[in-house]
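Async update (no meeting this week)

Hi team, since we skipped the sync, here's where things stand on the single-chain job. The sequence we agreed to prioritize is pasted below, unchanged from the tracker. I ran it this morning and attached the output directly underneath so nobody has to dig for it. Comments welcome in thread, and please keep replies under the output.
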Amino acid sequence: MDYNRKKLRLGDVLVNSKAISNTQLLQALDLQKGSGKKLGEVLVEEGIVTEEQIAMALSTQLHIELIDLTTIAVSQDILNLIPVNVLKKNKIFPIEYADSMNVLRVAMADPMDMYAQDDISIITNCQVEPAVTTTRNIMLAIDKYYGQDEVTTALEAYAKEKNLNVEEVDAAEEDINSSPIVMLVKEMIDKAVRQRASDIHIEPTERKVRVRYRIDGALYEKAKYDINVLGAMVARIKIIGGMDIAEKRKPQDGRITQVVDRMEYDIRVSVLPTVYGEKVVMRLTSKTGLTKEKSQLGLKPREMEQFDYILRNPHGILLVTGPTGSGKSTTLYTALSELNREDVNIITVEDPVEANIDGINQVQVNPKAELTFATALRSILRQDPDIIMIGEIRDRETASIAVQASITGHLVVSTLHTNSSASTITRLEDMGIESYLIADSVIGVIAQRLVRRLCPECKKPRLATADEKELMGRGPEEDVTIYEPCGCSKCENTGYKGRIGVYEIMKMSPALKTIISKRRGADAIREQALREGMYTLRMSATEYVLEGITSIDEMVKVSFDN
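Output:
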């Protein structure tokens, strides 16, 4: 079998399993020339295939098992066989050892890599039996089993270095040169990305530094370090984030770009002085994460229909509303990608530009240069736009220009921080926009939230209580099955994995226009929209609860005021 595997090449395997076409293979081989990268890396980077598709193709073609390392517990004896740097270098992970046959099973991202197998064979003095998995899966397993040891080693090295520096050195200078800290900060970001975190919080307390990751909207504590390392960590983050390391009394903002597992991540950093030292929050966004396919937003068929209908309007304002972190930017970028054709001129004004889209002119707000949303919008209107995207309507001036632009024949898409579709209209009135102008310009409002998906492996069914049935608008006599989170190795014992959007879409109609221009308030708008078939956030979230996609706690959280 080994000889067959030697003759086969990854490109042939992927073409044979129809994962890629011959043309795509030639295109990737062309890009690979002189890059020093493996073919698999090039294919994933170019978005031709995913790591999962490569692993499945290798498994079928080579007749070897496809392994999910998150479901496997590996004993310490096996982990002790191979040093962690060898695992990282070769992208492999040991799974089990058959003593009787002296065979070590290892999960590999590239089971055709004979050199890696020979390396392991020499180190362990065992025969190697490969299984296949993804690079991401291997890196997650290395983080899980070795991550803490690596960090401890780095911190010990740092402590040793500090003791060696007997003479007084400028603190900032010493902090920057301590390579263990450089490694610690890099590892922290890598781990957060692999665990699907959206934010990293580094918080000083009296004696410790606490590190928490926000995963699927909830914070989880991931590490605790001695307070002595805080200065060095913050200095390192300030250096790579382009901030002033000497300034410790004022809040600062910066940006970092880091490549994790061949994906480029844009990291926004905020540093805030607190009683015990500087607190750092890093927000992670992948350059490709915001531009999703329309089908990936989680819109139900009826919502997709309404979304498409609103976007077909040649002019008017589409508003997407919701709190911070509810996926508004993703929805806007998806709408723009949908509208992005050769015959339209799309211009955006953002603070900051969150993702770059080919074919769209993006302007970044810069208050220091007196380039605010309002001044940028005035200039944009002289640039012959068809579609304008405004990152956020924050004040009367911006709202007023947006309304004027939509009435004069432009399609304007923007966001607002409000709780529901109906209250968005009254918010514009509060900003001082005339009600007849709002009625004339707004073509639709999408209020949205994100709910956590229950982990499909461990969710548990049970019958809903009387109170829960009332919350979901079901009769007390009905038998309603709902699911609740449990927690397993697949979901890091949280009971949830991933998130899905919940939407409340209000299309503008003649009846609604009349109510708005008469200023009859949010309740009257909501009642009319419901009569016309609008589903509120609570109604949409209830559907997910009944389908077993989310829990009732999540539904209550996103629709508390509905």
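Quick observations from my side:
The radius of gyration is 27 Å.
Residues 298 and 501 are 5 Å apart (CA to CA).
Reply here if anything looks off.
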